[in-house]
Amino acid sequence: MADFHPGQLLNALIYALLGIAIFLFAFMIIDKMTPYHLWNEIVQDKNIALAILIGAISLGMCIIIAAAVH
After folding, report:
1. Sign (positive or negative) of CA dihedral 44, 49, 67, 30
2. pTM, 2 dp
3. Are 54 and 38 spatial neighbours (Cβ–Cβ below 8 Å)?
């Protein structure tokens, strides 16, 4: 515990918020590029294949964003 600095916690919080903001922006771009509204297609129409695809795309984007922000 002697090596803990409050600035490290602040840095982690800033990087986490930055990563989340970049992810949301990228997801909004993907949502606009598709010919239909993703949320309606997944929730209302229960398109499981699309949900799995969007989940995989989201994980891939998160890995790339985490590597870029880190």
Report:
1. negative
2. 0.75
3. yes
